[in-house]
Amino acid sequence: FGALMDPLNESSCFFAWPLKCPEFSWPTSEQLMKTGSTSFCSLSPPAVFICSFMVAAPIFGYLGDRFNRKIILSCGIFFWSAVTFSSSFITEQYFWLFVLSRGLVGIGEASYSTIAPTIIGDLFTKNTRTLMLSVFYFAIPLGSGLGYITGSSVKQAAGHWHWALRVSKRPPFPVSCACLNVLNEGLHLFCKIARRFASHGMAAAGLLCSPHLFRLFSRSYVFSSLATSAVSFATGALGMWIPLYLHRAQVVQKTAETCTSQPCGTKDSLIFGAITCFTGFLGVITGAGATKWCRLKTQRADPLVCAVGMLGSAIFTCLIFVAAKSSIVGAYVCIFIGETLLFSNWAITADILMYVVIPTRRATAVALQSFTSHLLGDAGSPYLIGFISDVIQQSTKESPLWEFLSLGYALMLCPFVVVLGGMFFLATALFFLSDRAKAEQQ
């Protein structure tokens, strides 16, 4: 459930907060059409969220391998649900407080993102574990898609950005309140952690030099983590810019007009969100089914299925930019197929990690992989795409055509990164069997 609400909250928050920071007001049409919100101010909330998430994830990974994972998970869900709901009451004069709240949400969400897959790995094995991980990771694209829908439509219907956050937090908040029954045990856990750190001094810092940490870095783990970073890079950039890109395509084709007053139409966000929901379900199920069938043929099925999905996704991602010049429907078809193939590897990648990492170090391994995927992936990809688009646009004359083309040229970086991710999965396949055997022997 947390896997569903995290991306729903993150995506709806992106469509909820205003793009112009100081007054929390909307930008002019000129500002909107200049590659959307490429300024630091407008993109600072997701930047702070991702940075705090990256910092907190390794900490929760360390704690998850040493203390009660269920308590850490429950307290984390309660914390980020409460912070997100509270942030919906921040007034227009306190943008800095809104940004700070996103950082606190990142800390809370790092707890469940690190701990939840590890708990699933503890409870299930083999094909059953793949199925359960598929259910867990299916919730991520579903939540992202629902976030695109609720964030844009609720804000337009209610007339204020606050309600998008309140609606996105309404389902999990009562559930997270159920975590209150573990708060006493959670306080006891906190005291236990404090006593251990006090008794061992700088022992926690010594983790970075411990042999247990270096055992995580098997070749399969490293290559699959790099491949996951490629997936994160593409999903972060495409999720941020594709709705705007398709709107600009329609402006060029004269089937839509430039938005000159707020609220703007939400059709592209709604369609993209619906596609993301459905392709998330279809991709995760397809990937799990293909892996289960291929395991009958080869023991390297997991990384090979991921590699095929990545390389196929790169092809259809390229075709998005070809089709968008003449047919929006064709672009949506390419998005549908490309996202299905891209999402097919999420659960399998987690399964690969469970195979090549011993159970007592899985939380740390998940945390470091999450840190790497965000650092090399969606922490910077939206900004990089926006920067490239701005550079191209500044070297040409100002027109709707070049606004459309410049963003398309910048987004063309995504399929190349996806191909690189496919290569990393092929490299994972070379070492997968030997690394799995080593993990089973420990």
Automatic annotation (TrEMBL):
CDD domains: MFS_spinster_like (cd17328). It is found in: Membrane. This is Sphingolipid transporter 2. GO terms for molecular function: sphingolipid transporter activity; transmembrane transporter activity. Its main location: membrane. Belongs to the major facilitator superfamily. Spinster (TC 2.A.1.49) family. PROSITE patterns: MFS. It is a multi-pass membrane protein. InterPro entries: MFS, MFS_dom, MFS_spinster-like, MFS_trans_sf. GO terms for biological process: sphingosine-1-phosphate receptor signaling pathway. The keyword 4Fe-4S does not apply. Residues 1-438 form the Major facilitator superfamily (MFS) profile domain. One of its GO terms (cellular component) is membrane. SUPFAM superfamilies: MFS general substrate transporter. The chain crosses the membrane at residues 43-64, 71-90, 131-149, 221-242, 270-291, 303-324, 330-358, 409-433. It comes from Varanus komodoensis (Komodo dragon). The lineage of its organism: Eukaryota, Metazoa, Chordata, Craniata, Vertebrata. Keywords: Membrane, Transmembrane, Transmembrane helix, Transport. Pfam families: MFS_1 (PF07690). Coiled coil: none annotated.
